[in-house]
Amino acid sequence: MADTQIDAATEPTAEEISEQKAVRLAKRDRLNDGAELGGGAYPVSLPVTATIPEVRDRFIGLGVDEQSGERVGLAGRVVFSRNTGKLCFATLQSGDGSRIQAMVSLASVGEESLKAWKELVDLGDHVFVEGEVITSRRGELSIMVSEWRIAAKAVLPLPNLHNELSEETRVRSRYLDLIAREQARRNVLDRAKVNASLRATFAGRGFIEVETPMLQVMHGGASARPFVTHSNAFDTELYLRIAPELYLKRAVVGGIERVFEINRNFRNEGADSTHSPEFAMLEAYQAYTDYHGIADLTQQLIQDAAVAVSGSHVVAWADGTEYDLGGDWARISMYDSLSEAVGEQITPETPMARLKELADAAGIEVDHPLPGKYVEELWEHHVKAHLVAPTFVMDFPLDTSPLVRWHRSIPGVVEKWDLYIRGFELATGYSELVDPVVQRERFVEQAKLAAGGDPEAMRLDEEFLRALEFGMPPSGGMGMGIDRLLMAITGLGIRETILFPLVK
C-alpha cells in the first residue's frame, strides 16, 4: 500500500473510486480464500483485550522511547498509513475518536506478515493488532505489533477528510460524519447525557416513566397534521402519534400521579432549522400542581441537562458562544408584551377587525377564524425574536388552547406558557383542563374547525372524555422537544442534533 493518509489533498473522482473499489474487492477475495491471515476479510470474533481509550488512559505516563513490558490486543480503523521498507506505521481510530499508533516491523512480524500488511491493508479498514505497548522516539504511544489481522475490510475508500464534509454528506451519510468529525461524535454523547439527566431528575421527583401507543385510532394531544396509515390486521385507518398527551392523562386518571414519557412523535408538516417531521418529545404530567409548578420543573430539567453536558449552567455552543441557562428565568405575559411592542393595549376583548388591521400593517398573512390565532401571530412577529435569554411566555388566548384550563383571574385567557430559548420555542406547559364537560365543549369547537377544513384541528375523542369523567386531579403538564433541547445546549441546528434525520 502506498504512503497515504485520511486527509489526502485531493478528492477522488467517481472513476477513481470505482477503480479503488475493484482493487479492494480483489483484496477481500484474497483474504477470504484463506491463503493469507486466517479468519478472512470479516472474522466473526477477535481476541481483543483492551480498547484504544483504555490503553491511552492506562499508559499516559509512559516516557519517550520507553517499553511498558505489557501486551494488549486491540482493534481500530486505519486512518493514516505510512510504509517505509522494514517498518510500517498506521494510526488506528476507535469509535470515540481516540487514536493510537501501530508499528509493524519486519523484526516483529516476519517477512510474510509484513508483505501482507503492505499489500492488503487500506485506509478505512478495521484491523486487529496484538503487541507490546511502547512509545516511539517521538514520544507517541504505540503498539509494537507482533500479530495482526483484518477485522473488517472496507471496499469503499473514505472520502477526502482534509476539507470539512459538506452538510449534505454529513446528514445523508452520518456514519462518515461520525468517523471524520469530533463534533458529530460529541453530539451523540451529549444527547445520551441529556436523556440520562432528564430521567435522573424525574426519578428524584418521584416520576414514573411509561410508554404510550405510537399507532393511534385517533390523533390528538396537539394541533398538528398527522401521518395516516392503514392496519391490515384491523382493516382500519390509523395515525402516527402527534403527541402522547391524551394517553398520559389517562395514566394520571388511573393513579400514576407523576408520569413522563420520552417518545417519538410524527407530524406531517414542514421541515426547517427547528422542525423535523419525526422528532423526539418529552411530556410529563404532575397531579396537584399548576403551570407555575410545571415551569419550575421544566427549568430544573433543562438546567440539570446543561450541567450533565457542560459541567455548569453556562453552556458552550459549537461556534464558541457561551450561553447562560442559570438563575430563575423571566416570566412575561403574552398580551402585555404584545401591547408594549405595538404601542396599544391588546386584550382578549380586542376586536377581530383591529387585530386584522395590525396584522396587515405588519405584513402578516393570517387566514384563520379565531382571534387568538391573530394574537399569537402578532406576538411572534413583534416579540419572539427579541427573546434571547430563557423566557416563559405566559397566558395564551383561550380559543387556541383546547386542552388548557381557563385562567383563574383573567377572562379569555388560559394558564399556558411557552418557553423560548435562543429565540425559538423549546417547551410548553399548562394547568391542565380536567373538567370533562368543558373539555367536551372545546372538542366540539375543534370538530367544527376540522369540518371547515382545518387539518390541524383536534378530533372529538370519546374514550379520553370517558376517562376524564372518572375524575382527573388538578394537574400541570409540559412537553419539550429533545432535539430542540440539544439545540439550546449545543447551539446547533436540528439536523445536527438528530443522529439520522429524515431527508428527501
TrEMBL record:
Subcellular location: Cytoplasm
GO MF terms, alphabetically ordered: lysine-tRNA ligase activity
Binding-site residues, Mg(2+) 2: 425
Similarity field: Belongs to the class-II aminoacyl-tRNA synthetase family.
Cofactor detail note: Binds 3 Mg(2+) ions per subunit.
Signal peptide annotation: none
Quaternary structure note: Homodimer.
Gene coding for it: lysS
Reactions the enzyme catalyzes: tRNA(Lys) + L-lysine + ATP = L-lysyl-tRNA(Lys) + AMP + diphosphate
Chain positions recorded as Mg(2+) 1 binding sites: 418, 425
InterPro entries: Aa-tRNA-synt_II, aa-tRNA-synth_II, aa-tRNA-synth_II/BPL/LPL, Lys-tRNA-ligase_II, Lys-tRNA-ligase_II_N, Lys-tRNA-synth_II_C, NA-bd_OB-fold, NA-bd_OB_tRNA
Keywords: Aminoacyl-tRNA synthetase, ATP-binding, Cytoplasm, Ligase, Magnesium, Metal-binding, Nucleotide-binding, Protein biosynthesis
Keyword Ribosomal protein attached: no
Record EC number: 6.1.1.6
Protein name from the UniProt record: Lysine--tRNA ligase
Chain residue ranges for the region called Disordered: 1-20
PROSITE patterns: AA_TRNA_LIGASE_II
Residue stretches making up the Aminoacyl-transfer RNA synthetases class-II family profile domain: 191-501
Cofactor(s) essential for the protein: Mg(2+)
HAMAP family according to UniProt: Lys_tRNA_synth_class2
Main location: cytoplasm
Matching Pfam families: tRNA-synt_2, tRNA_anti-codon
CDD domains (UniProt xref): LysRS_N
Keyword Manganese: no
